[in-house]
Design brief:
Layout lengths: L19 E2 L6 E2 L42 E3 L3 E2 L2 E2 L3 E3 L3 H16 L3 E7 L1 H6 L1 H11 L5 E4 L15 H12 L3 E7 L3
Helix pairs in contact: 1-3
Length: 186
């Protein structure tokens, strides 16, 4: 993971649970995001002010929940108590890829900047390039990021490179909404 120090020259308290970002705008977090499940990455704050506890309610979880088509079979799935709507697609492969791209475009809008992150197997099978091509056809060009397999190569340096960070920073400067699309091969 990425660790960033939060430093403020302010003479009064700065709420660490609000939306924070690095000076470049590349890294950001908002402790109220429901996908964080209440886990704030800020563990300690140091400074001359007296002790204080911060509180912020977590926003409502609003996953993408499309009406399933006949070839889509719901597959209930949860992580940390959050429902993640998944489907098993039983139709033509390219139609499923196109449907997925159209759903992302309709949910995130024209400002969507997809980062298609794909491991070695998915890359070799062409899954990632198919998804990026479908998103580009929806008017959402993005960035393709092939990386070593997460199942056998769990090193943080495998999941970031200067080109990836430059693409994300440029997209954010342009007002695009960066969404990482993790493509699996299994």
């Amino acid at each position: 993971g990425v660790q960033v120090a939060f430093v403020s020259p302010a003479a009064e308290r700065v709420d660490p649970l609000r939306r924070l970002q690095t000076a470049s705008g590349l890294y950001e977090y908002d402790a109220a995001q429901p996908e964080r499940m209440g886990r704030c990455p800020v563990a300690a704050i140091f400074g001359p002010l007296p002790d204080h506890t911060f509180h912020r309610p977590i926003a409502a979880w609003r996953p993408l929940k499309p009406q399933p088509l006949p070839e889509e079979k719901p597959a209930p799935f949860k992580i940390g108590g959050l429902d993640l709507p998944m489907v098993t697609y039983e139709g033509q492969y390219i139609a499923g890829v196109s449907r997925f791209a159209a759903l992302l475009r309709s949910d995130y809008g024209e400002a969507l900047f997809p980062v298609v992150a794909v491991g070695e197997t998915g890359d070799a099978l062409g899954y990632g390039t198919d998804i990026l091509a479908a998103l580009e056809a929806e008017g959402c060009p993005g960035h393709y990021f092939a990386h070593a397999s997460g199942e056998s190569f769990k090193r943080p340096d495998a999941y970031g490179n200067p080109e990836l960070f430059q693409a994300i920073a440029a997209a954010k400067r342009a007002g695009r909404r960066v969404v990482v699309v993790a493509v699996g091969g299994g």
